[in-house]
């Protein structure tokens, strides 16, 4: 009898964990926005598309599929542009953020002393960001100084995009000239670029 209760308890526990994981996944995966007013719940489907571009000079951009930092030296700059299209018949506000920062060693056969000492490229990568809609900018800020909740960086906050319109969000990363030998053989991966949109109130 005790063994049967233990088995049932274990099944309920495992089911609860799966339900939590599924609920968490659903929370992040569903694009519907719920606006709760005094007596109204209005569910709106937000239809937004985005294209990522990269440039070495800040003027000629080519299509890109990832944010990549390899073989960079102090003073190097990498430029990115996201073209966001509002496919709705209403105006939206859009936020762009970077998530999933992971430090590692660039060359696994090289010296890993700097990595083991806790050095991170977040301290020497300088972000600049702007857009073609408003005058909001980020100027010469390290990723460490912009990091929120130890996990993400907002590059563009509440960019207004008109119905059926587009916005161009620019950001660049500069390897600080203050980065010395103590930042050699380090690698930084950024796994996600999130674009979150809500209907303007």
Q: How does this model look, in words?
A:
The protein is elongated, with a radius of gyration of 22 Å. It has 201 residues and is α+β, with helices and mostly antiparallel strands. It has a 6-stranded antiparallel sheet. Strands 9-6-11 form a 3-stranded antiparallel sheet, with no helix packed on it. A two-stranded antiparallel ribbon has the order 1-2. The chain is built from 3 helices and 11 strands; from the N terminus they run αββββββαββαβββ. It has helices at 2-29, 113-116, 143-146, and strands at residues 32-36, 41-45, 48-55, 62-63, 77-86, 92-105, 125-131, 138-142, 152-161, 166-175, 186-199.
How would you summarize what this structure contains?
This protein is an alpha+beta fold. 18% of the residues lie in helices and 45% in strands.
Structural class: alpha+beta
- Tally of individual domains: 1
In the predicted model, the low-confidence regions spanning at least 5 consecutive residues are 3-43
Amino- and carboxy-terminal Cα gap: 58 Å
Largest sheet: 6 strands, antiparallel
Could you tell me the mean pLDDT? 80
Highlighted features:
three-stranded antiparallel β-sheet, elongated, Jelly Rolls, 201 residues, disordered N terminus, six-stranded antiparallel β-sheet, alpha+beta
């Amino acid at each position: 009898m005790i063994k049967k209760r233990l088995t049932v308890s274990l099944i309920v526990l495992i089911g609860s964990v799966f339900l939590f994981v599924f609920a968490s996944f659903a929370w992040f995966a569903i694009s519907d926005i719920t606006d709760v007013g005094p007596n109204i719940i209005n569910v709106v489907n937000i239809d937004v598309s985005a294209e990522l571009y990269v440039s070495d000079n800040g003027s000629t951009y080519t299509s890109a599929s990832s944010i990549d930092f390899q073989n960079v030296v102090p003073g190097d700059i990498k430029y990115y542009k996201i073209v966001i299209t509002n496919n709705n018949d209403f105006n939206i506000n859009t936020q762009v953020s970077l998530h999933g920062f992971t430090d590692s060693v660039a060359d696994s056969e090289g010296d890993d002393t700097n990595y083991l000492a806790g050095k991170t490229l977040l301290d020497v990568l300088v972000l600049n960001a702007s857009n073609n809609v408003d005058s909001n900018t980020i100027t010469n800020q390290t990723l460490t100084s912009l990091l929120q909740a130890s996990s993400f960086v907002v590059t563009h906050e509440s960019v207004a995009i008109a119905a059926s319109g587009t916005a161009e969000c620019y950001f660049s990363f500069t390897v600080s000239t203050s980065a010395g030998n103590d930042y050699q053989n380090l690698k930084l991966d950024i796994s996600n670029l999130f674009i979150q949109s809500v209907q303007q109130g």
